[in-house]
Structure formats: C-alpha cells, structure tokens
Amino acid sequence: MVTPKKFTSVWMREPRGQRERGLTRDQIVKAAMELLDAEGLDALSMRKLGAKLGSGATSVYWHVANKDELLELAMDGAYADVVLHPGRSWRETASDFSYGLRGAILHHLWLASLIGVVPSLGPQALRCSAMLVDAFDRGGFRGMDVDFAVAAVLSYTLGATLPEASWRSAAIRTDCTEQEQVEALGPVIDRVAAEHPALHERYQSYHARDYDPKLARKIGFDYGLVAMLDGLAERLRQAGSREAQASPASATESTTDQRT
C-alpha cells in the first residue's frame, strides 16, 4: 500500500519575522505576483524572484520553504482582489464574489492553473467563503442548502471563467490579439460546421457584424450568473413554501397531543 503524501501548508505555521535589513513576506509575495503576471507560472523560481528583489534566494527561503508555499501565498494574494461588503443580501454577495473572482482570475491568468491544485486555505480565501456562508444563512438558506448554494456560485464562476483565462493565455503565448484568434478560427469553423447549417449560420451572423469577443463573453457571463441566481431564489422560495405548509400540520399535531 502506498502511503499518502503528508499534506503541508504555509498556513500551518506562524510567519517568520523580518531579518535585519532583510525582506518581508509581503514584499516577497508582491514581487512573486508581479513576476507571475508578467511571465507566467513556469517562469517563477526562487532564484529569479531573488534577483527581482535584488537579493539572494536565501532571503526568500527565510520566509517560504519551497515554491509550493510561495504559490499558496500568491494565490491568497489574488483572492484579496475579491471585494465583499458585510451585511449585503445573499444575492448581492454572491454577485460580488462571482464578478470579483472572475476579475481576479482574468487579471492573474496563472491563477487558473492553481485553482483545484493548490488548496485555497489562506485568510483571504477563507474570508470570501465565510462571508458567502453568512450571506446565504442570513438570506434564509438552511442546513446543507447553504453549502450547495455556495458551491453553485463557485462552480458557475470557475466553469465560465477558466476557459476564458485559457483562451487569453493562448493569445499571449502566440503573440496575437483575440480578434486575430477569432479570424484564424473562421476557415476552420466554416469547414467543420458544414454539416450543421443552423450552427454555421449563427456563427456567420455573429461575425458579419462588428463582433467584440471580450464584450460577448462578459455579457454571456452576466446572463448565466443571473439565471443561476434566479434558480437559487426559486429554490429558496420553494423551501419557504414547504415550511409554511408544514407549520399548520405541526401545530395541529401538537394541539392533538396536548388534548390527548
């Protein structure tokens, strides 16, 4: 039997203090995120980060044991971009979270490769989770429905955003614009969609007029999010109706028991 690898996390230990005339952990994380934003995930190394900071790799290792810990810190730094406001309704909080996480992923494209691989256990990620749970609980969701609602919002956001992040990353790697990507796909789609005339006609109609792929994805994201939140609102309404219907029956049973 293979022994499972012991899980370790940078969040399991207290951050070390700043060495005399040394770097702080916040400085290291900020520089790491800048390097990731500029050059991507594969470009990050302790040596390269040390050079960017004008220091040796030893100064980086004072605060993080390895690259995995550094990525945990950078990932949580990206979650800081998600701005949530205490006391807002469940729908407003879910919308703020969804748009905020989408924005964070599209701003930090490397984040798309870490989600689901690097656990989101940092204080910023947990802040988002806690505020979502609180908003749904205050909004009337109960029991496991709170967890399911949070999962629905997260799943929709990631499902709609990660492919877009991959598309943008591909454009960067090939050094072309999104419009150039769309134009390059045109002849391919004309050929492969020939046996699906209705689908082919829709594709041609989009591109017969001024087509902004970035705007189209933004509108599409909004459409899907509103539809998903409408579905959660309907589930909440149905749950409330069931409770209201059950209450008179419970009261009758209680009265009968007392008379007996």
Q: Topology of this protein?
A:
Layout: H1 25-39, H2 46-52, H3 57-61, H4 67-79, H5 90-107, H6 111-114, H7 123-138, H8 144-173, H9 178-192, H10 197-208, H11 213-259
Helix pairs in contact: 1-4, 4-7, 5-7, 5-8, 5-11, 7-8, 8-11
CATH class of one domain: Mainly Alpha
Task: Please identify the oligomeric state.
Answer: single chain
Q: How is the CATH topology of one domain named?
A: Tetracycline Repressor, domain 2
Strand content: under 5%
What percentage of residues falls in helices of 4 or more residues?
over 70%
Classify the secondary structure makeup into a structural class. Answer: mainly alpha
Summarize the helix and strand pattern as letters. Answer: HHHHHHHHHHH
**Global geometry:** flat
Radius of gyration: 25 Å
Put the structure in a nutshell.
With 260 residues, the chain is an all-alpha fold. It has eleven helices and no strands.
Write structural notes for this entry.
The chain is mostly helical and 260 residues long. Among the domains are: 23-65, Arc Repressor Mutant, subunit A (Orthogonal Bundle); 81-175 and 212-242, Tetracycline Repressor, domain 2, CATH 1.10.357. It has 11 helices and no strands. The longest helix has 47 residues, at 213-259. The relative contact order is 0.08.
